[in-house]
Amino acid sequence: MQGSANLNLMIKAARKAGRSLVKDFREVENLQVSTKGPGDFVSRADREAERLIKEELLGGRPTYGWLGEETGGAAGADPTRRWIVDPLDGTTNFLHGMPHWAVSIALEHKGEIVSAVVYDPAKDEMFWAEKGAGCWLNDNRRLRVSARRAMHEAVFATGVPFGAKSTLPAMLKDLGRLMPACAGVRRWGAAALDLAYVAAGRFDGYWERELSAWDVAAGVLLVREAGGLVEGLRAGTDPLDGALIAANDALFKPLADTLRA
Q1: pLDDT at residue 29 tops 80
Q2: Which of the residues 53, 84, 132, 189 could staple to 217 if both were Cys, CB 3.0 to 4.6 A apart?
Q3: Average pLDDT over residues 66-77
């Protein structure tokens, strides 16, 4: 695997956290779980994974800033670089024994994501990318977004809001407009993996309305380096602000037009 020193550090951290998570996943019924909100759980496994990642990344690059789902943000001595980490994307899947969850790590430099890792420990799939160097799976498989050009052949992914989130009515309208025009919509509950699957051509596109930067930072670079397009759901907005659309170049416009109607 060819990559920068930073990327190799990220992969090492993701694998270390992945080993810890897999061990807990095998005994998911014994996890100590607390509740952050309706349908939004945090587990001991989640917190331990972030601790391991933080220890590895900041141990190797102590001057970098930090933004993690569980421990929040902290400025570093180097104001131009920041790690953005979701230690367990797909927590609800994890806690229900469903093997579809991931570790997501991104490196931001001067406001731009330059390195990305999304690791699926249950399937041992390591998606990674660096700016200008393409998107890859494991050691040597170059990834490209799908080549489908027709909406009626396309399968898209999204996240449906849980609990009483205010974006549910808008999402239901999205589904009502899009589903008659495409081959299907999947809701798998892990934004980082949804974006990795767009990069791998498994999904033809993805959108969601209510996310955090750590959910999507790594996935955005994966899609772009695989030849796809990513924008904020509202034209001109930053995808890391919490709402985004991703797809191949042929399907991006019809998908965006449908969702922005």
Answers
A1: no
A2: 84
A3: 94
Band of pLDDT at residue 44, cut at 50, 70 and 90? confident
Structure tokens at 92: 């609800």
113 contacts 219 by C-beta, under 8 angstroms? no
pTM, to two decimals: 0.94
pLDDT given at position 38: 54
172: CB partners within 8 A, 6+ apart: none
Q: Based on the domain organization, do 132 and 209 belong to the same domain? A: no
When the pLDDT of each residue in the chain is averaged and rounded to a whole number, the result is 94
Which residue, 142, 164, 180, sits at the end of a domain? 142
Which residues touch 24 (CB under 8 Å, ≥6 apart)? Answer: 31, 43, 44, 45, 48
Q: Are 10 and 54 in contact (CB under 8 A)?
A: no
Q: Calculate helix-pair angle for 191-199, 213-225, nearest 10 degrees.
A: 0
Residue with tokens 């607390």: 34
61 Rama sector, left if φ>0, alpha if ψ -120 to 50, beta otherwise: beta
**Structural domain range at position 170:** 151-260
Domain end marker among 111, 142, 173: 142
**What CATH number corresponds to the domain at position 179?**
3.40.190.80
The span from the CA of 88 to the CA of 215, in Å, is 10
User: What is the tens place of the pLDDT at every residue in 157-188?
Assistant: 999 887 767 889 999 999 999 999 999 999 99
DSSP 8-state symbol, 240 = G
Say if strands 40-43 and 33-37 run parallel, antiparallel, or are unpaired: antiparallel
Q: What are phi and psi of 86, to 5 degrees?
A: -115, 110
